[in-house]
Design brief:
Length: about 425
């Protein structure tokens, strides 16, 4: 097999790896990079037939929109639905690519390749690593993973029964130098949110990804324990509906401790997107408007300390509460408060952080593995060669792992 990392040898995000065997080429991820980058990948000049998407984060799937429909995109079925949901609520059409769905530990073939997906714990549902076999050789692509989320058990299952005889391990290293040996679990995040909610007497807003299911579940449980109601925008309610249909431990918006904000500027914007795609939403639309499921701004303003609100834009509510002490829990990557990574939205977040009437808390943990867990995965696979990817510190791998081979974007090598 021939292998080329087109992007990812020295940056986080934008991963794109090409594997070739027997005249057939496939891509492992095709993502947009994060922030400013000098790297460039032109898929139109690459000869490949299929793309394996490890999970529905744009830094792993973002470039597939421009791929011709004669090529097949392989992704988890729920992952595809989350990609489409994100596009709909951003006012974009759903993708028209040719899709094929894979399942955990069920091998499938693409020409000479046999691919086995392995479900992993990550800050995205439907996140997978891949074992790729051809010509008697075996590559394992880690994708993004961690061991401190709601799916921590799947990492333990992976270590107990990993792929054998791996020739090359492509190992992500997002956290290699960002943090020490440990980081908070999602249970720790829940407890921190609960402590904040118990201290706060006024309204609380949660800023975070509407697709970070672990975090939404942590906030929901903290809400219940604090005696508050979890208020969601229409987009986040739809994401919970999609995921709760598959995982019974994820709450649906019909739970008595959840309400959907169905009035106001954000609600109007979200509803227009839903209404334009009614055939995709089934009974979601009538359900959000049932009396027990919805809530309006007036009811929130009557007793703001009763709620924690996860809504995309809360400027209207914040303005109406200007005489009230407000709590904001910021629960996502700190990079979004920096212009380099979020040029159009960073200022709004920084203004919230600096607002003297707001108690602003950072409550977050990474979606990526710490060094110790990276070492556990490498030890379980015991590869003949380990190649850094999805990292800004490729040279540092040699401090923690053996058999490391550091490559450059665009460099081809054979195994």
């Amino acid at each position: 097999m021939d292998l080329v990392i087109h992007r990812g040898t020295r940056e986080i995000g934008g991963s794109c790896v090409q594997v070739t065997s027997g005249g057939k080429s496939i891509l492992l991820d095709a993502g947009y990079p994060l922030g400013d980058t000098t790297s460039h990948v032109d898929l139109s000049v690459l000869d490949f037939s299929d793309v394996l998407i490890s999970h529905p984060h744009k830094d792993h799937y973002g470039m597939i929109e421009g791929i011709n429909d004669d090529k097949t995109i392989h992704v988890g079925e729920l992952g595809r639905k989350l990609i489409d949901a994100g596009r709909i609520f951003m006012g974009q059409p759903v993708l028209k690519n040719r899709f094929s769905y894979y399942e955990n530990r069920k091998p499938f073939s693409i020409g000479p390749f046999t691919i086995t997906p392995y479900l992993m714990d990550h800050s995205s549902v439907d996140a997978f690593g891949f074992l790729i076999e051809a010509e008697g050789k075996r590559i394992y692509y880690s994708g993004d993973f961690r061991s401190h989320g709601m799916k921590e058990k799947v990492f333990k299952w992976f270590l107990a029964d990993p792929p054998k005889n791996v020739d090359v391990l492509l190992l992500e290293g997002t956290m290699l130098s960002r943090i020490g040996k440990d980081c908070d679990s999602e249970s720790d995040i829940e407890q921190k949110m609960l402590d904040i909610l118990r201290e706060a007497t006024g309204p609380c807003f949660l800023i975070g990804s509407g697709q970070h299911i672990d975090r939404l579940c942590a906030a929901f449980r903290a809400c219940k324990r604090a005696g508050r109601i979890f208020v969601l925008d229409i987009y986040t309610a739809y994401i919970l509906r999609l995921v709760s249909n598959r995982f019974e431990n994820v709450p649906d918006f019909t739970d008595k401790n959840i309400r959907v904000l169905t009035k106001g500027r954000t609600a109007s914007s979200h509803y227009s997107k839903v209404n334009a795609n009614r055939e995709l939403f089934g009974d979601f639309i009538p359900h959000i408007f049932l009396q027990d499921n919805q809530i309006g701004m007036d009811e929130i303003l009557d007793n703001p300390g009763k709620f924690i609100l996860k809504v995309s834009n809360f400027s209207d509510l914040l303005g109406a509460m200007e005489s009230t002490r407000v709590t904001v829990i910021y629960s996502q990557w700190i990079g979004y408060r920096q212009e380099i990574y979020n040029p159009t939205g960073f200022k709004r977040l920084v203004d919230l952080e600096n607002n003297p009437n707001i108690d602003f808390y950072d409550v977050h943990t990474s979606g990526h593995a710490v060094v110790g867990d990276l070492q556990k995965l490498a030890e379980a696979l015991s590869p003949k060669m380990l190649i850094p990817i999805h990292t800004e510190h490729a040279e540092d791998y040699k401090e923690y792992f053996s058999n490391v081979s550091v490559t450059d974007d665009g460099e081809m090598f054979s195994i």
